Amino acid sequence: MNNRLREHYEQLLALARPLGPLRIGVVHPCDAPSMSGVAAARAEGLIAPLLIGPRHKIEAAAQAAGVDLTGYELAAAPHSHAAAALGVRLVREGRVEALMKGSLHTDELMAAVVDRELGLRTGRRISHCFIMDVPGRPEPLIITDAAINIAPTLAEKVDIVQNAIDLARALRFPEVRVAILSATETVNPKLPSTVEAAALCKMADRRQITGGVLDGPLALDNAISAEAARIKQLESPVAGRANVLVVPDLEAGNMLAKSLSFLAGADAAGIVLGARVPIVLTSRSDSLQARLASTAVAVLLAAARVADPGKTVAG
Length: 315
What we know:
Helix 2 packs across helix 3 and helix 2 packs across helix 11 (288-307). 43% of the residues lie in helices and 17% in strands.
């Protein structure tokens, strides 16, 4: 991690540390990277973890990671599906304030979260945000949705945008500038994402979306490059300086986020919003720093909810 990324990472931890420890259920932490991330977050004072899953697998993972389980609380579950269901139940019972994905598949955890009877749904659409620290950019960049909603409708995009805005505010962005991305900056009825972008911006004008400044449709270049926006003669408080990027569908978002990570060297934290509590989604390829950053984001979100208990997480 270079010095600039380290500076942003330390700033995020500095915001979160005074708000912890967050009571978090870690669902099926049955590999060494999961246990290392949990131990590091606990050592930073960010979390008070409850480890959920098969005891023998958790103990083996801790041994592989060199983690002493003395002082950790465990909740036994026979397998990953049962661990996901138990984690959700512990949220509903008020025993934990957030969830963290361990070594189970994302679909397993999210199936329990979105269950219509026993899950953690709210009035908001559940969505995912990457918070990316991209070399050469002075501030973090939020990308949504690149992990949950495959082909969101206009109505679903309203919640996706609002979730991202509320996340940015919880992360204390001085100004939230939202670019609704498409392949072009002009409205073209043959390209539905441009029409939906224009509709979202008008909805923000009518205060159906609040807390941020929206513009769209915008192509990626003129959303993040002031020079590209100038060449296209775009006059907007967002064009060329967006800090939230709303993609048209999951495929576009996933490729954008992974391109920034693997081609541009960006660090990424991931969080699920719109549920009753923050949900940290980790990937097997995540660095320890990325895992800590994701946990710090959850701490900040939970604190924002406590400050305004009438809100859902990012809602």
